[in-house]
Write a structure and sequence with these properties.
This protein is mainly α and 81 residues long. Helices cover 47% and strands 5% of the residues.
Length: 81
């Protein structure tokens, strides 16, 4: 995600009911940068800006559209900081 670190995005989205995680799934509980993201060619700054969203067969189109609206709202909010 551009701008703020993913952790900032995570908290803003969580407050709006959108659940995401930072980093890669294999490093979900680790505090250091994900080796998978670094191996994928991301530098440290970019690796700290990765958000991960998980979907399931029960995820609805309405939920995806609402998540997209909230992402846009957070992007606008963070751009003003």
């Amino acid at each position: 995600m551009p701008g703020a670190p993913a952790e900032v995005w995570l908290h803003h989205l969580d407050a709006r009911g959108v659940c995401v995680s930072t980093g890669s799934a294999c490093q979900a509980r680790a505090s250091e940068l994900s080796p998978a993201l670094l191996a994928a060619g991301l530098d440290e700054r970019a690796a700290r800006q990765v958000l991960r969203a998980s979907l399931s067969p029960e995820t609805t189109e309405d939920e995806l559209e609402e998540a997209a609206r909230q992402l846009d709202a957070v992007a606008r909010e963070l751009a003003q900081l």
